[in-house]
Design brief:
- 2 copies of one chain form a homodimer.
- By secondary structure, chain A is an alpha+beta fold.
- Helices cover 39% and strands 27% of the residues of chain A.
- Chain A is built from 4 helices and 4 strands; from the N terminus they run αβαββααβ.
- Chain A has a 4-stranded antiparallel beta sheet with strand order 2-3-1-4, covered by helices on one side.
- In chain A, a hairpin with an 8-residue loop joins strand 2 and strand 3.
- The longest helix of chain A has 21 residues.
- Chain A starts with a helix and ends with a strand.
- At the A-B interface, helix 1, strand 1, helix 2, strand 2 and strand 3 of A face helix 1, strand 1, helix 2, strand 2 and strand 4 of B.
- Strand 4 of chain A pairs antiparallel with strand 2 of chain B.
- Chains A, B: It comes from Dyadobacter subterraneus.
- Chains A, B: Pfam families: EthD (PF07110).
- Chains A, B: This is EthD family reductase.
Chain lengths: 135, 135
């Protein structure tokens, strides 16, 4: 009986370990994490190629950030929440990082090549907004 | 032996079920989810009481949204990503919802009381930006 209990316990423990390793890892964005949002304001005549941005530009920049990068997100502007007002932004790309100074140190030497890639997907000069996650 | 296997299987399955119920639920923001961001632009003389916003205003509005609300976030503006440029926003509150029309239907009848609460924490007129999660 004791042996059976031990076997059951081992199986249960192994099962739990396998389960916890098997589940997809979700990056946890905690209070205090830094967001660097690259915001592309909408205006008449402005263009934005989301497919290039998603498949080429953002993965390239994310690749420069190493383990400081918690996750990155991309959103596509749909509307102004107030009727008959212009769309505020065509798109926003956001890097969630542990450290702003590490972000700046990683991006600094790559700034020229990042900017040179802008013309491949947009004619907008982005606004860069740094904020802290409160909740 | 068959019986022992069945018992082990039942224990394992029960263990898994208990484990999956015990872990903290993390709201999953998937591609296609709608973001409604209430953005408070910075300007000289503008004020923003983050404590009131976090503990009173945002929980009140979130309470109007029911199961359509996936999660909400709050961020505090720190800097413009370009040196010597003004801070773009003092704060941003964001509701992640499954359906924009359900959001509008829930907020519509409450709009006056939501706006009446603005003066309790800020003198800024927010910009409301609706976007779709691409990644």
């Amino acid at each position: 009986m004791t042996f059976k209990l031990i076997v059951t316990f081992v199986l249960l423990t192994t099962g739990f370990a396998a389960l916890s390793q098997g589940k997809p890892t979700t990056a946890v964005v905690e209070k205090g994490i830094i967001k660097v949002a690259i915001m592309y304001p909408y205006a008449e005549g402005k263009t934005f190629n989301m497919e290039y941005y998603e498949t080429r530009h953002m993965p390239m920049v994310a690749g420069f950030l190493g383990p400081n990068l918690v996750k990155y997100t991309i959103e596509k502007g749909l509307a102004n929440g107030v009727p008959n007002q212009p769309l505020p932004f065509m798109a926003i790309g956001t890097f969630y990082v542990q450290s702003l100074s590490d972000y700046q140190a990683a991006i600094g030497p790559k700034r020229d090549s990042i900017r040179a890639d802008f013309s491949n997907y947009t004619n907008i000069s982005p606004v860069i907004f740094v904020s802290e996650v409160v909740k």
